[in-house]
Amino acid sequence: MKKRLLSISLISAALIAGVNAETFHLNKGWNLIGSSKKIELNNSEFAKNPDISVIWTYKDGKWSYFSSKKRLKGHNFTNVIGANQGAWVYSDSDLVINYNSNSASNGTSDDLTDEQKYALAYMWNEEKLAKDIYLALNDLYPHQTLYNIPTRSEVEHEAAVEALVQKYDINITNLKDYKINYSEEELRALAPGEYAVPEIQELYDNLYEKGSQSLQDALEVGCMVEVTDIDDLNRYIEIANGKEDLITTFEFLKRGSYNHYWAFDRALKNMGVSEGCCSLGAKYCKTEDEYPRSNGGGKGQGHGKGNGSYGRQ
User: Fold this and answer.
1) Whole-model pTM above 0.90?
2) Looking at the structure, do residues 162 and 282 belong to the same domain, yes or no?
3) Is residue 89 within a helix (H) or strand (E), and if so which, with residue range?
4) Do 146 and 252 lie in a common domain?
C-alpha cells in the first residue's frame, strides 16, 4: 500500500497516569501510531469516531485494514493492532482519541449469557457456511459473484466473529460446555461443509442439493443464504442486549449481507431472470428500503456484465 509522505503526520502515544489508557493526537490525513500494548479496535473509540476512515496494519508481508465505515476489496480485515506494531490511521479531521485498554480487553465466558455465547457459535458457523457453499457451487458453475463474495468478504466476516470468540475465550465446537477454552486448531479442523451446529449442517446440505442443479439455482442459493443471515443477525442483535462489541460486529456483518443480496439479485437478472431474487417468492423479495445498498453496491459483488463467468482459481 503506497502512501504520499506529504500527507503523513507521525505521532506518539502517551500513557495517562493512573489508568490503563493512551491518548492519540491525530492530524487530518495519515497518522502513524503505535503502542507497547495490543489495541483492540472493535468497540474502541477508533471504531466509534466517525472521523476515523480506515486503519492499516502490516505484518508478515501483508497489509490488513480495519474500518467501521467501509469494506475494501481484495484486502484482509483485522480487529487488532498488535503490541509494538505500527499502524496507519486516516482521520478526516484533527482529533484526539482516548483508548482505554480496560474497556476493550479480553473478557471471559462468564461475561456473556448462554444465549450470547450461542449467538457467537451460530454466527461463526453461518458465516463459514456462506463461504463454503459459494466456493463449492463456484466449483460446479464458475461465476464471478460466487467466487468474489466468499474470497473477499465472507472470510472477513468469519474472522470478525472469531475475534469475539477468541476475546471471550469460548470453544464453539462444544455447545454443551462453553467454559472450554477457545481452540483455533479445532475450528480449522472443520473441513468445508462441516459445522459444529447441527442446524447449520442441515442447512448447508439442503442448500448444496438445490444449488448443484444449475447456475440459476446456485445464484438463488445466494439470495437464500443472505436473507437467512440477515434474519439471524437481527435476532442475535436483540440477544446481544447492550454488548456493544457483539452488536458492532453483527451490524458489520448485516451491512455486508445487504450488499451480497443485491449482488445475487443482479447476477440473476444478468442471466435473464427478470425478477432476480424475487423469483424465489415473497420471503426472499426485498426492497432497497429493507436492504439498503452501500459503497456503490458493496465489495466482492461481481459487477461484470453478462453471466459473470469466472474460472476456477
Assistant:
1) no
2) yes
3) strand 87-91
4) yes
Pick from 78, 104, 130: which residue ends a domain?
104
In this structure, are 98 and 211 located in the same domain?
A: no
The whole-angstrom separation of Cα 264 and Cα 84 is: 42
Give per-residue pLDDT as tens, 273-308: 999 999 999 999 999 999 998 754 333 333 333 333
Which 3-state string (H, E, C) describes 256-313? HHHHHHHHHHHHHHHCCCCCHHHHHCHHHCCCCCCCCCCHHHCCCCCCCCCCCCCCCC
Q: Is residue 272 one of the residues assigned to a domain?
A: yes
Paired strand residues for 63: 58
Judged by average pLDDT, the poorest of 116-120, 185-189, 264-268 is 185-189
Q: Examine the domain organization and report whether 119 and 226 are in the same domain.
A: yes
| Interatomic CA distance for residues 171 and 188, integer angstroms | 12
Separation between Cα atoms, residue 120 and residue 173, nearest integer Å: 11
Confidence of residue 218 (pLDDT cuts 50, 70, 90): very high
Domain limits for position 95 = 5-104
* Domains contained in the chain, number: 2
Residues 100-115 pLDDT 10s: 665 444 566 678 999 9
